[in-house]
Amino acid sequence: MTPRFRNDLRWSDVTPRADWLSRRALLAGVGTLAATPALAKIAAEPSAYSTDETPNTLEDISGYNNFYEFGTGKEDPAAYSGGFVTDPWAVTIDGMVDRPGSHDLADVLKGQPMEERIYRLRCVEAWSMVIPWIGFPLSGLLDRVGVQPGAKYVAFETVLRPEEMPGQRSPFIDWPYREGLRLDEAMNPLTILATGLYGEELPNQNGAPIRLVVPWKYGFKSIKSVVRITLTDRQPVTTWQTLQPEEYGFYANVNPEVDHPRWSQATERRIGGGFFAPRIDTVKFNGYGEYVADLYAGQDLAVDY
Ligand code: MTE
């Protein structure tokens, strides 16, 4: 990665995790830790759903992003999200639920079991990473608000704040960014709402303060900085499907057998591997088939792409 040059750069932005931890310990020892602003720590249990693949460095994970609200370049989100205000934050949960309402982030998180989930992330652009998220199953939150029997889908929206998100001043997307899942996908234990990574609160560029993570689907389904969750009986309108329906479908399951119209999905480039690293084979459902393949029994995934 090309380094970014910002005067508020943290150790965590430029240093692989192991180095970063030891340097922080060193700094703490000489009493200067307070000089380096740090994101709050989040306690979390390890999860049986984690991959044992080596996570990408924090530099990769927070320096190479897609977050079009802050620009279309991979380094734009890190460069332009510094002024994004994520506290206070409220999430509205509405539609076909017994207890609709707007909840302060602390209320959303209350009682939810925080886990570290080390997941592969496969972008539709054919690159991938391994990210140690901190989060909790979306199902726990949906259970708490009471999903009504007729609900079939869950729709999600990112915050609309063009004054803080320069990309939203450009009208090429009908903001806010929207995504959706079928209810059974939303209730699957792999589907989490993440509030952190590498043991700390999410950096703004990764979707602070709360974002969806759906590891068997292309990354664009994992919507960032969520402010609204709506239970509905209709398939939700989603941003990328609206923009280019023949290229980006509602399902967007990672699938090496179904190519994107403009490129192959058979292989991927693991970020951080260096320029000469060989491409790796993409695995159906991003390797999570044992947990999710049943959801699509009887569906033709070339049609439901
Ligand atoms: N969410 C919003 N609101 N806006 C976006 O542009 N990009 C998506 C997804 N969520 C995006 C978004 C895409 S294409 C990917 S690959 C992932 O976020 C990237 O997540 P990461 O930057 O944390 O790796």
Question: Any descriptors?
Answer:
305 residues, alpha+beta, Sulfite Oxidase, Chain A, domain 2, eight-stranded mixed β-sheet, five-stranded mixed β-sheet, 9 helices, 22% strand, globular, disordered N terminus, binds ligand MTE
Spatial shape: globular
The number of distinct helices, counting runs of at least 4 residues, comes to 9
Specify the CATH homologous superfamily: Oxidoreductase, molybdopterin-binding domain
The CATH class: Alpha Beta
List low-confidence stretches: 1-36
Total tally of structural domains: 1
Describe the largest sheet. 8 strands, mixed
Q: Which percent bin holds the helix content? A: 10-25%
- The secondary-structure element order is HHEHHEEHEEHEEHEEEEHEEH
* Cα radius of gyration in angstroms: 19 Å
The fold-level CATH name is Sulfite Oxidase, Chain A, domain 2
- Spatial separation of the terminal alpha carbons: 31 Å
What ligand molecules are bound, each kind once?
A: ligand MTE
CATH architectural type: Alpha-Beta Complex
Q: What structural class results from the helix and strand content?
A: alpha+beta
According to DSSP, the number of beta strands is 13
Summarize model confidence as the mean pLDDT.
90
